[in-house]
């Protein structure tokens, strides 16, 4: 893919506020407003944070050798519809699977809505 330059490389939330993560909702709003293309939003929300901030090549992209965690989006609602991580369905139809977990900074923590 093309490598574009942005003033701000990544879209992210600190996860500390309420609502906890607004990247998807607000990023898709920027797409709806014509301020970002959908491809640019995906790069700024997934690829660039992984590569440029976390210095990871195995996350944030879909390609051979990558972890391939996936989020399918309900674009009209600007919400995740399906989340698959480490080969497990963690969220489907807006509902978390009971006991769903994810790795954060090498520690296992419960996902929260």
Tags for this entry?
113 residues; alpha+beta; 23% helix; four-stranded antiparallel sheet
Write a brief caption for the model:
The protein is α+β, with helices and mostly antiparallel strands and 113 residues long. It is built from two helices and six strands.
**How are strands sequenced across the largest beta sheet?**
1-2-3-4
The global form is: globular
Specify Rg, calculated over alpha carbons: 14 Å
Q: Give the number of DSSP strands.
A: 6
User: Mean of the pLDDT scores?
Assistant: 76
Q: Strand fraction band?
A: 15-25%
Order of helices and strands: HHEEEEEE
Distance N to C terminus: 32 Å
Work out the helix count: 2
**Helix share of residues?**
10-25%
Structural class: alpha+beta
Low-confidence stretches: 105-110
Task: Describe the 3D structure.
23% of the residues lie in helices and 24% in strands. The chain has 113 residues and is an alpha+beta fold. It has a four-stranded antiparallel β-sheet with strand order 1-2-3-4, with no helix packed on it. A two-stranded antiparallel sheet has the order 5-6. A hairpin with a 4-residue loop joins strand 1 and strand 2. The radius of gyration is 14 Å and the shape is globular.
């Amino acid at each position: 893919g093309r490598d574009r330059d942005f003033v701000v490389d990544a879209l992210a939330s600190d996860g500390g506020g309420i609502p906890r993560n607004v990247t998807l909702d607000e990023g898709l709003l920027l797409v709806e407003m014509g301020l970002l293309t959908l491809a640019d939003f995906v790069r700024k929300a997934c690829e660039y944070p992984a590569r440029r901030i976390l210095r990871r090549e195995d996350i944030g992209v879909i390609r051979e050798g990558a972890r391939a965690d996936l989020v399918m989006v309900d674009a009209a609602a600007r919400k995740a519809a399906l989340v698959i991580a480490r080969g497990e369905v963690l969220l489907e139809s807006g509902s978390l699977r009971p006991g769903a977990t994810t790795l954060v900074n090498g520690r296992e923590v419960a996902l929260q809505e």
